[in-house]
Amino acid sequence: MSETTVIECPNCGATFKAKSKAALGKKVACPKCQVPFVISAPSSSSKSKKPQQAAAKQDAWDDLWDEEDDLEASRPPREKANRPRGRSAKRNPSSGDSLKWIGLAAIVVIVGGGIGLIALNSGGSGGSSENLAAKLATTGAANQSSDKEEVSETVTPEPTEAKSDELGTTENAKPQMTVASSTTSTSAIPEADQSVTVDPSLTPAQAAATHLLVFEIIKLDSTITNSIKNSRQNKARMLDMLSRSTAQVVDTQLKKSDVLTFIPRSTQVDLSRNLLSLQADPRAARQIADSINKNASIKVQVAETAKVVALELPEEEADEEGVDYEVKYVIEEIDESISKQIAANPVAGESVLSQLLNHQLSQKYSDYIADSVKLDLEYHVMTMRMTRCPSVALYMEINRIPSIPVKLNLMINNVRQLRTPEKIQPTQLTYKIKKYKKPDSLQYLRRDNYDMFRDKIISGLYIALADDIFGYVPGSLRVDLVNETVTFQFDHEPEANLARRLNQNFFNDLILSDQPIKTGPPEPPFRTPGRPMRLVVLRVIEADGVGTVYFSDLHPDQVKAKLAQDYDDLNRYFAGDIPGYIADSAEGNPQEMLIAIQLDQIPPPDLAKMINAITLFDYKVADEFVAVHEVQYDPESSEKTMFFNFINHNEKAAQFRPERVRAKVETELADLPRYIPGSLQMDFDKGTLSVRMRIGLDDRWEKNNVIHSLTRLNLQLSYLNSLPPQGKNQAHPKGIGVVAGSAADKGQGSSMLQPAGQLAKGKHLKVTIQYGLYAGKTNIVRSARSALDGFTWIDLKTFQVDEAKKEITFETTGEMNVPALDRLLKRQKFYQCVINSEALPEPEGSEK
User: Fold this and answer.
1) Is the pLDDT of residue 812 over 60?
2) How, if at all, do strands 534-544 and 619-621 pair?
3) Among 156, 360, 735, 749, which one is most buried in terms of CB atoms within 10 A?
4) Is the CB of residue 262 less than 8 Å from the CB of residue 277?
5) How many CB atoms lie within 10 A of CB 241?
6) Closest residue by Cα to residue 136 from 148, 120, 112
7) What is d(CA 331, CA 125) in angstroms, rounded to the nearest whole number?
């Protein structure tokens, strides 16, 4: 047996044990009041073996949590004025969907090789955010000189009974934080970051609910780096996808570890900044870093120390009439006595559990709405309602109630705000962009980086709106980087501090004006997702040849020739790179050096910048639009419905409940170019699924696209049938819109820049084709004849070409196939073709 030493803290009187006399003369932080002191005299001793030290340390840490929980339970309630700064007993109803980012007064940026914290409102009129930034920037130099000595690995504080006056001494003690040594050492208590002092009166759960730990990612696994490097799609989107998946892995693995104070589902990863953040007790920061770095399933490694951001919760306010909050939790475990009843009689057992939960929650929480608990034991989900927005740590409090027979955990976006109809007041707000948070943001305005810069700005602002603030109307966000404005809608009139909350959000890279520059009722939608809305005509001003740049004012013939040569590739250039682009809608007019595309939205002012940023696009277009036209589009005539059977191979768990699976399916289908967003219908009981698609591809291609896109979601699909368009209007064969009015002063528009021809019906017609440009190198007559060969309904004896008038004429002996004729003319390099036809008298003896 090894000797042990009983140690008494001179500050608060707490006693604990050290494993050997080697502790004498060493400095150690008291596990109760956090005040460092030098161990001076032994009280008793015993022997212990070295292999037991690590286990003893963990036991001491666990005992410390239990002791602090007991202390909190025994402490009398304090007045509101005596609460820890920035914390309230209940959360402000307007404080958002989760506490993860609310009240952030600083944003973390990488400066050189380390992480620095700067104020979000730098250069403003001062305030709490600036003071917090100054506090976070302090490295604890005042404590550094007195706390340099390391705590020996042989010193393991073991909490024992505290003295009777411990409570008062602890509350009055001034907490101090030790500065982590540059050399690696194992402390009995995981070291906290020095930038924020943790109130020792806070329990671990309370400290976790009010602190955000931000780690610098110092290493990425090769699988992540290769995925980013080899990505064929938008880099920003790939980074966002990998960031989310990495955060999910970290969340899952930390949940399995021994980190007791980590709040599940609070992890956020930003691979573009190499930052990882989560909510936990700052005193467990080193333990969390070790858990991440030593887990092979987690493909990132983080710095050993974290920066700590204090989440300043709003002060308690009066209840808002007509507003409730619905919160969902995962049921991880049910007591054996109840689970046996449920197994024996599911209906009766579920009813008993619901009644028990309703009774206990009503007794414990005054803001709980009686009889609001709803259970879905098939997918392990519990739903309840409260009159106040629940704390992010509420599930921890519920789990500690002995009479509650379930163990709960968080769900992502688990809180929903419910408003009565009279509280619904749709509002549209427009804010001015004051500046970008990152000083080097303007470098991304270069041509090659503009698309990545724009995507990052919009996605960051969307996260701030959708994840942290109640009432945002999905799909209403519009960012205008030319006029520097941001517009979005709420289902109610938002609070006055909305801009401040958005500016403080970790992911938002913009600083918006303190107040909106325009407020009013919602304006008509600026987009119709998946369906054509506007046609935009742009002028080509530059063409990039092989090692040569051609300008339209200097080399018009070269620009025309290259544009005619690349005519068929225009759709490939724009697909996937221009938000809202309608597939197969791109066409050009080489003769006049124009390009036109259709969008499902009013074109953003920086559309030309987005087009010019496309890497593979060899042209540059002018910033000013040539024309913008409305398009006519009839969904009933231009869309088909496809039906599938599906088998859901996912397990019966909370993350695979039907609404979650449906949301994931919608996200996957959104990448298909002809899918109509929001048209998905899924019946999980019957196992049927239907989608609406714009016409343009045959069913064989479309069904393979749908089946392939959903394979990764563990859904097994089989194609049933398709319902063709049911409308009576004439639809464009590509499923795109028809221009209303004139198109670039060319007369009545068809789909693009080319004017529409007048087409008669019947088998016996005289057809006149006017072409705007011939870009081929062979004889025009021979090329025109080649385009018409193979059509049995063309009378080739009547074929004629007038090169002076740019006309091709012939007569027909059967039904004319206009789309096929147009395709073959383009294949032979005839562009801007207008097809006209007039009926001829019926030949004698022909059938009517």
Assistant:
1) yes
2) antiparallel
3) 156
4) no
5) 14
6) 120
7) 47
- Provide the CA 54 distance to its chain's centre, in angstroms: 41
- Tell me if the domain spanning 323-419 has CATH number 1.50.10: no
Contact 643, 681 (CB under 8 A): no
731 CB neighbour count, 10 Å cutoff: 21
Within 8 A by CB and 6+ apart from 807, the residues are 768, 769, 770, 771, 801
pLDDT band at 234 (very low <50, low <70, confident <90, very high): low
DSSP letter assigned to residue 198: P
> Which pLDDT belongs to residue 747?
30
175, pLDDT greater than 70? no
Question: CA nearest 698: which of 674, 682, 668?
Answer: 674
For residue 831, how many other CB atoms are within 10 A of its CB?
22
Rounded Cα distance between 73 and 400, Å, is 11
Q: Which of 62-76, 419-433, 497-511 has the lowest mean pLDDT?
A: 62-76
Fold for 534-632, please state it: Alpha-Beta Plaits (3.30.70)
Instruction: Please write the tens of the pLDDT for every residue from 534-571.
Output: 999 999 999 988 778 989 888 888 888 888 888 778 88
What is the mean pLDDT of the segment spanning 693-702?
A: 89
Looking at the domain that runs over 635-723, which CATH code has it been given?
A: 3.30.70.100
Within 10 angstroms of residue 200's Cβ, the number of other Cβ atoms is: 21
pLDDT band at 21 (very low <50, low <70, confident <90, very high): low
Could you tell me the two tokens for 51? 């292999």
Q: Which DSSP symbol is given to 76?
A: P
- CATH architecture of the region 425-506: 2-Layer Sandwich (3.30)
Q: How many of the other CB atoms lie within 10 Å of CB of 614?
A: 18
> What are the residue ranges of helices labelled H in 590-676?
607-612, 635-638, 658-669
Q: Which H or E element spans position 583?
A: none
The CATH label, of 3.30.70.100, 3.40.50.2300, 3.40.190.10, 3.40.50.300, for the domain at 757-839 is: 3.30.70.100
CA distance 419 to 390: 16
Give the mean model confidence (pLDDT) for residues 329-351.
Answer: 90
Residue-wise pLDDT for 457-481, tens only, equals 888 899 889 877 889 998 899 999 8
Number of H helices and E strands in the chain, helices first, is 21, 37
Q: For CATH 3.30.70.100, list the domain ranges present in the chain.
A: 534-632, 635-723, 757-839
Question: How high is the pLDDT of residue 508?
Answer: 87
Report the alpha-carbon distance of residue 606 to residue 148 in Å, rounded.
56
0.85 exceeded by pTM: no
| Residue among 752, 748, 723, 757 nearest 736 (CA) | 752
Angle at which helices 235-256 and 285-293 pack, to 10 degrees? 110
